[in-house]
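#lab-general

N.A. 3:47 PM
ok so I finally got the sequence cleaned up, no stray characters, all 203 residues accounted for. can someone with queue access submit it? mine expired

B.Y. 3:52 PM
send it over

N.A. 3:53 PM
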Amino acid sequence: SLHRLPDGKFLMGFMVGNDGGLLSLHLPNGERDTAFGNDGIRYFPAPDGMNMYQRDVAVTADGRIVVLNRRQAQNGYTMAFQFNRLLPDGTPDATFGDGGMVVMPGPDNMALRSVIALPDGKILFGGMVNGALMVGRLEQSGVLDSSFGNNGIALHASPNVGMSLSRMRLAPNGEIFVVGSQLIGFDATGLAVCKVLSNGALD
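B.Y. 4:20 PM
back already:
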């Protein structure tokens, strides 16, 4: 992922095989910003016994950075998703979760693909589970927002077909759009575009 920040710097997120990911912050002239992380780079290594894949990166209105990673056990399919929030200098944000990290266990067939930092500081994430679109919202502290969907998670299924979420986008007026595919088996049969209301329901 690539983000241009208000000060002209560029933030880039990379997946490092199955061993986690990294962020790299660059000055407007392309050089790494050595004041960020460790010489301009912030690593997110996979925990012992786990593979980890960086999925998406978002930047909040006040410059904090949200990273979404997928964890998977090396000896099976046990799945969990890891959210990290950093301060603008690359250090963990201690006001978020446990020392800047939230781990969300999920069923083996759950997949998160996209994360958005909302203007009020909350975090929207999206993916799919059991063939249904899934959209969730975290409070600024990292706990699920009980006012969204069913205790923080909204599921939306389509009759007779599965749904796969690719990306979410926030419109200038604050409306949330979800883009994905309709699936029969593993084959995409059509484009799916949805608008999500602030309570998690579809418009």
